Amino acid sequence: MNFLGKSKTSTVISSSGKVTVNGVRYEGNNITITNNKVLIDGQAVESSVSGEVKVKIEGSPVKVYSDASVEVRGDVLGDVDSGGSVNCGNVKGNVDAGGSVCCGTVGGSVDAGGSVSMRR
Description:
By secondary structure, the protein is mainly beta. It has one domain (11-118). It has no helices and 15 strands.
């Protein structure tokens, strides 16, 4: 996927909720991880993101795009596009995952490289 250039991991989250990246909690409207840096609303706040990136979102993000696996503790109001697995509540848009998908109802389509489990 790597839609933000040649960085190791790219993640874009449009959310007003709380986001945890590798155990560090962040809050902001737009959170981006690219070139091993975390940007909150366009401002760099962390430059040492490395290794396997784990993204956990608390709240209802508008959209989530990530090379990493994603866990959302809430509903996604738009699309989820993940290079890894996706675990979330309901999704109003589409889900595209390189790994497995475990979610509630999906308003659009689901494309997964692994298993799909949808809770009703």
